[in-house]
Amino acid sequence: LMFVCFIFIVVSYVQIFRVVLRIPSEQGRHKAFSMCLPHLAVVSLFVSTAFLAYLKPPSTSSPNLDLVLAVLYTVLPPVVNPLIYSMRNKDIK
């Protein structure tokens, strides 16, 4: 189920980028990408930590590694999310 969701997200972003690249003005493309890329960064951070947490081989599993991966999966994306979205704010830049 997680793989199907991941494929759906990838296909959706490919469609979004195809449409954005067809925008005739450079300023319009820049504005569209500046709205899409922070969201893509947060989604990719969340998906990559989820893959690390759930798709690691069980032979290399240790309780400490499981704890670190669980913290990365549950804490890192929500903490980094406001930082990534605030990069669009001119006052913070």
From TrEMBL:
Q: Which domain of life is it from?
A: Eukaryota
Write the record's keywords in alphabetical order, separated by commas. Answer: Cell membrane, G-protein coupled receptor, Membrane, Olfaction, Receptor, Sensory transduction, Transducer, Transmembrane, Transmembrane helix
Q: Which Gene3D superfamilies match?
A: Rhodopsin 7-helix transmembrane proteins (1.20.1070.10)
Q: What residue stretches are annotated with the G-protein coupled receptors family 1 profile domain? A: 1-85
- Quote a single Gene Ontology cellular component term: plasma membrane
- Where is the protein situated, by its record's location annotation? Cell membrane
Q: Which GO terms describe its molecular function?
A: G protein-coupled receptor activity; olfactory receptor activity
SUPFAM superfamilies from the xrefs?
Answer: Family A G protein-coupled receptor-like
Membrane-spanning intervals of the chain: 6-24, 36-55, 67-85
Q: How does it sit in the membrane?
A: Multi-pass membrane protein
- Protein name listed in UniProt: Olfactory receptor 14A16
Organism, by scientific name, is Tinamus guttatus
